[in-house]
Amino acid sequence: MSRTDHMDVAAYALGVLDAQDAERFEEHLATCWACAAELETMVPVVGMLSGIDGESMAALEQTHTDPALLDRTLGAVRRDRRRTRVRQLLATAAAVVVFGGLSGVAAGFLGGDPPATPQAEPTQSVPTAAPSSAPADPNDPNIGGNEQEGDQHNATDPGTGVKTTMWLAKKEYGTQISLQLNRLPGPRTCRLLVVRKNATSEVVGTWSVPGSGYGTNQNPLGLELTASTSAPLGDIAKVQVQSVDVNGVASPLVTVADL
Hints:
Blueprint: H1 3-6, H2 9-14, H3 19-29, H4 33-41, H5 43-50, H6 54-60, H7 67-78, H8 82-111, E1 151-156, E2 163-171, E3 174-182, E4 188-196, E5 201-209, E6 223-229, E7 236-244, E8 250-256
Helix pairs in contact: 4-8, 5-8
């Protein structure tokens, strides 16, 4: 390309080049990162010109500038599409500048050893259990992605028939208790009682059972609850689900004592 091509940046930014010259300059701009960088620096000037009306520019123009060039410049700054055009030019210029920078990096690779890339330290993977080949038990409460945290304990009361599965998990604040109840008839009021090894006890939850119950023929869905106690896991002797009558008298429904 000729030196003239490198001197058309300002005229192109102002939009005063005719269609043929503009097309020729755009072809040059696609491969010349120097012109692209210069074009980017002219954006503030073009932005200021876009806010000046033609009459003001004519009044300020006191030189012997070519009248044809002045008329074309005034027409360019009047066009509302100037801002959009500048954004497009910026995108083109940025692409050329980036391409030029990448070309320099590529040349460095071809001319010698590539720069060392920091390598991440290897991390230890958590072992995963191998899938079991045994068929899944549909009555297992963990089936269906509902695996609970803690040690699992199952119990069924021979007298009431109430069935429970509990999970006790050690926590910094004490113990978390998650449980599922089935074959629990209603209506009734229930509570969850934690009995410590020193014979003290604590009620950690209460709830109401509707007439259809939970896990029954009328309502096949079991009841799921979560409660917490300040008692450490090692201090718990048993966890019991109790039924409370209208007089406040409690009777056991099912007990987990194998802790």
